[in-house]
Specification:
It is a single chain. This protein has 2 domains: 350 residues, 3-Layer(aba) Sandwich (Alkaline Phosphatase, subunit A), CATH 3.40.720.10; 56 residues. The protein is of the alpha/beta class.
């Protein structure tokens, strides 16, 4: 057979289709690794982990560290006056001018627990678990607006399209739950600026995408079968669809089809598992009261905190609670008190509940927003002078962590007397990400995914593990 004869038999298009199918088969095998054929099959990290699960309590909008976690009595001396230019010369502000008047905090702080951690009167329940948390007062970020700030916190970059933190974790570890997604998202409040980009799988297979659950009714819209469709009929339909998808995957080499197959199968299993997840009938009355599930103010966030505990109990790897909004440009005193009333007790209850069940050691809880607030006031209209708020402040703010091998009962980092700049132990969001992955058993520089000819990672090209956070 000469070359022209071969060419007539095998066209270039056919050749590349066959090669693509071979590559696709390898991708399919990689994605569906494990005897169960489940891409979320648990996998070993780089080294022995301290934590197995993460619950991230994301306070969207930027909580005011000055009124909650970082007392600055010297601000009262400047209250109503502009700061010296030496403080504000290079400051990037979203809405106010650098010469805006200072706003001292009206809230009292007091030492809490055996550690003597100073926490605001707005957080009396968090004060009860102060010896279990590590309060970081020296967080900083590069973004001073919400969407870029949220992307940087969760995806390691201000660019849309990168995988989120939860997706990276599940990509690296898989999930111990066979009937629920490895990465679950719960939402309360009025929504987030970043929206779905906060839990996107980016260029990772869609299996690692965060799955949004509702806290009442069907956990996921359209999860239940329509009338007349039995579970047996659905199983047969899925089997046919699976065989068609597998054939299409062999032809095209598209690894995303394998994710589609896995997602259909997971949805089928979830139809039985998800309703049980939302059934609180076996929870004690004291547990429901502790979370505030029956309280009109705390119900939404409290239910999500309880669901977070139940999710990690069932092997879900990463749970993200998005609670909006802490973006208090005006009416700070009223709105901040309202948000603390909704979230303080449930968040503290989560720490208490995990601890009493022996789960806190292996569950890393993180609380915080994308940045903090300025020591200067923001007054958008002259008539709102008595309802001042605070602008975005990315260069110095606070977060707290608990469990998962994090040192409790301590404060890390320090800001200057006006909470303007960090003066001790600065921690960038990339450092937070590197530390979180470290507690899960990963070297953040080695947890990578090749895309468009480059090895990407959550921490981009930065980040250091903060050893002072680790017990």
């Amino acid at each position: 057979m000469d070359f022209p004869d071969l060419s007539r038999i095998r066209s270039r298009r056919h050749f590349f289709r066959e090669v693509g199918a071979g590559i696709g088969t390898m991708a399919l095998a990689s994605l569906l690794e494990g005897e169960s054929g489940n891409p979320l099959t648990p996998r070993k990290p780089h080294f022995a982990p301290k934590a197995k699960n993460v619950i991230f309590l994301f306070m969207e909008g930027g909580p005011s560290q000055l009124d909650l976690f970082d007392p600055k009595p010297d601000l009262q001396k400047w209250n109503g006056k502009p700061l010296p230019e030496s403080y504000t010369r290079n400051l990037q502000l979203a809405f106010i001018k650098p010469n805006a008047a200072v706003l001292g905090s009206p809230y009292a702080f007091a030492p809490r627990g055996q550690s003597g951690m100073e926490i605001s009167e707005l957080l009396p329940h968090l004060a009860e678990v102060s010896d279990d948390i590590c309060l970081v007062r020296s967080m900083h970020t590069d973004a001073f607006n919400h969407h870029p700030g949220q992307l940087l916190l969760f995806a390691g970059t201000t660019q849309v399209g990168r995988p989120s933190m939860g997706s990276w974790v599940v990509y690296g570890l898989g999930s111990e739950s066979k009937n629920l997604p490895g990465f679950v998202v719960l939402s309360s409040g009025t929504g987030t600026s970043g929206g779905e980009s906060n839990f996107s799988s980016g260029f990772l297979p869609s299996t690692y995408q965060g799955t949004m659950f509702r806290s009442s009714g069907e956990p996921i819209v359209y999860l239940a079968n329509p009338p007349g469709i039995s579970r047996e009929l659905e199983r047969r339909e899925l089997d046919v669809m699976k065989s068609l998808n597998e054939e299409h995957q062999r032809v095209t080499g598209d690894a995303e089809i394998a994710s589609r197959i896995a997602n259909y199968e997971l949805a089928f299993r979830m139809q039985a598992a998800a309703p049980e997840l939302l059934d609180f009938s076996k929870e004690s009355a004291s547990t429901l009261d502790m979370y505030g599930v029956n309280d009109k103010d705390m119900k939404q966030f409290g239910t999500n905190c309880l669901l977070a505990r139940r999710l990690v109990e069932r092997g879900v790897r990463f749970v993200m609670l998005m609670h909006a909004s802490w973006d208090h440009h005006t009416d700070l005193k009223k709105e901040l008190s309202r948000q603390c009333l909704r979230t303080d007790q449930p968040a503290a209850a989560l720490v208490k509940d995990l601890k009493q069940r022996g789960m806190l050691d292996e569950t890393l809880v993180v609380w915080g927003g994308e940045f903090g607030r300025t020591p200067m006031s923001e007054i958008r209209k002259p008539e709102d002078a008595n309802n001042a708020g605070r602008d975005h402040h990315p260069v110095a703010y606070s977060m707290w962590m608990a469990g998962g091998g994090i040192k409790g009962g301590r404060v890390l980092g320090k800001t200057d007397d006006l909470c303007f700049n960090i003066v001790e132990d600065p921690i960038h969001v990339h450092d937070l990400q590197a530390t979180l992955l470290n507690q899960l058993g990963f070297d953040h520089k080695r947890l990578t995914y090749r895309y468009m000819g480059r090895d990407f990672r959550l921490t981009d090209v930065e980040g250091n593990v903060v050893q002072k956070l680790i017990s």
